[in-house]
Fold this protein.
Amino acid sequence: MKKFTFLVATALILAGATSSIYATISGPFTTSTPIPSTLTDWSSSLTFPEFDSSLGTLQSVTLEFSATFTTTLTIQNTGITASSGTAQTEVQVTVEDAGDNLDVPFDVISNPAFGYSLGAGDSVTSGLISKSGNDGGNTYTLPAILAEFNGPGTISLPASTFTQTLLANTGGNTDSSQVTDASATGTVLYDYIVVPEPSTWALVALGLGALSLFRRNRR
């Protein structure tokens, strides 16, 4: 009976000690510097809190970005014959880290095609068109990225936009232009393993030592 009680007590020690070793998450944290709707093409940055390494050992970093843009298209037929077609504004949003390790661009957003039909010398304006996009999130385990996001402070990721007009035209001599504003934001999520306290490791050693002693005594 004493041996059974001893084994149970030792098992409880080991179970209690190892139960503090587990994976968990920190976040998601929204950037403290969301980029407001600004005339493209802009260059800015998104700032996030770094992972607090006192919590444990960082295993992965998940970044998710989203953007919204508004655009007004103007199409002009400068030819002497009629023209028709469609026009779109395409906004490419890029977010990068200092080591150029992230997947870029994170998103390319195009508004629904704006259709037009113009007589010679005519022009048309689309009015304000809005479009939003999200990259769905990407998880990184590359040691170089984990190192960048470890620390007691913040990390700033450069962000920029590139905007162009996509024109599919038939007839005439058609020009197009756009005026576009875009915003961007993002979140970061940290997946980490909790590091046991020194006292926990002492319990593990105590339990293992007790089991070893018990086995020797049984021989």
User: Anything to note?
Assistant: Residues 4-15, 200-208 have pLDDT under 50 and may be disordered.
